[in-house]
Design brief:
The complex is a heterodimer. Chain A is mainly α. In chain A, 69% of the residues lie in helices and 2% in strands. Chain A is built from eleven helices and two strands; from the N terminus they run ααβαααααααααβ. The chains are: A mainly alpha, B mainly alpha.
Chain lengths: 232, 158
């Protein structure tokens, strides 16, 4: 029978590469899918009729840009629900940044790839704070899903499962760092949960990780961050 | 003008329509993270007591999502419920905004297409019909030119 060490070796070695390959191929497939299902659109350029043009007006003065920018923010999520916007943005930033710059992972980069990330590595206090902040954000999402009616009516078991699956690597990592219980078991669960996430991300609701960027950069829209020309 | 409304629903015909848009609809339904952030962008949601039934995502999930889950096998009562969602709770103004880029109006339009294929159409009360007729009468091309403001008068060909 396989013992924990052998399982750990397999999970850390070939399994990790398989999961990473599935993740990359899956995301590639979703990008291909997006380009196949969407189409290129030409930009519509509207010209103001001459009689409405004020010769003295400076159309792109700093004040105009500031006012239009503030008006856009006011009607966007930032203006309508600032708390949700803040929590969502910081939660997702923590999800991406925390695993990359944590001391334990930086040590792994150093050992395996001789890649030194030292000046950017989070101290233990900062990492702990961000980890607890992440749990706080997750609690906020859970609370929102249970309490707010409009979110509750949409919620299914999948949504709660998604939140749990996202948190499992962080909880196990946190417990492993602080040596709460059996370290080997915690680390194996930690790696396995991340691998599971890598495999399912392109094919489940987690695909929003990719489509958020597609929406902001490739799709044409008023909240685009780039001049995307695709349309569904 | 329209075909006769039968009690049975042609599930095969519905499935054919759904299959034509399967990939896009499946992706839209899969992507929806049930975050409800689209709610505020719907003017009907904002003006009708902020009821969850008016949320764009709710409308998509309970119309096209329902049709896909049941593979087109819905009864007449089910189609009537979908009609209420796609016609009475949505005006297809296309102003709904999804942070993940889902094209919700297209999905609602697909729901309408399915309903039309089964002779399920929007229903209007007498008052609504009169209002619509009055609106048509008020259109610039339907009113006498002498009563129209200059900028509404139809341009005559030279």
């Amino acid at each position: 029978m396989l013992d924990l060490l052998q399982i750990g070796e397999f999970v850390r070695g070939p399994m990790a590469w398989i999961c990473l390959t599935v993740f990359l191929i899956g995301n590639g497939y979703q990008i291909f899918n997006f380009y196949r299902l969407s189409r290129h659109t030409n930009r519509i350029r509207l010209k103001r009729p001459k009689r409405y043009r004020k010769p003295s007006a400076r159309p792109f003065s700093g004040r105009d840009v500031l006012i239009s920018g503030m008006a856009r923010l006011r009607v966007s999520l930032v203006g309508l629900d600032p708390l949700m916007a803040f929590v969502t943005v910081t939660f997702h930033l923590c999800l991406l940044i925390l695993p990359l710059f944590i001391l334990e992972h930086a040590a792994l980069y150093m050992i395996n790839w001789k890649f030194n990330l030292w000046p950017l590595v989070f101290s233990q206090q900062v990492a702990d704070f961000l980890m607890l902040y992440l749990f706080g954000c997750a609690l906020f999402f859970l609370f929102r899903r249970i309490v707010i009616r409009r979110v509750r009516v949409l919620s299914t078991v999948h949504d709660y499962l998604m939140l749990t699956l996202t948190l499992v690597p962080f909880i196990t990592g946190y417990l492993a760092i602080h040596h709460v219980t059996d370290y080997a078991m915690l680390i194996t669960i930690h790696i396995l949960s991340v691998e599971l996430l890598l495999i399912i991300t392109p094919f489940t609701k987690f695909a929003h990780m990719l489509f958020f960027f597609i929406n902001r950069f490739a799709l044409a829209g008023e909240y685009s961050l780039a001049k995307g020309r695709r349309s569904w | 003008m329209y075909g006769k409304k039968s009690e049975t629903v042609d599930a095969e015909a519905i499935k054919k329509i759904l299959d034509r848009h399967k990939k896009k609809a499946k992706l839209a339904l899969k992507l929806c993270a049930h975050c409800s952030l689209c709610a505020e962008s719907c003017f009907l949601y904002n003006t009708r007591g902020r009821k969850p039934e008016y949320m764009p995502s709710y409308k998509m999930i309970h119309s096209i999502g329902r049709l896909y889950n049941k593979k087109g096998r819905v009864d007449r009562a089910g189609l009537e419920e979908i009609r209420e969602i796609v016609w009475e709770k949505c005006v297809l103004c296309t102003r709904c905004y999804c942070p993940l880029g889902i094209d919700i109006p297209e999905m609602i339009a697909l729901g309408r297409r399915v309903c039309r294929s089964q002779n399920v159409f929007p229903q209007y009360t007498e008052v609504e019909n009169n209002n619509r007729l009055n609106n048509v009468r008020r259109m610039p091309e339907n009113r006498p030119a002498e009563n129209s403001p200059a900028h509404f008068r139809p341009v005559k060909a030279a």
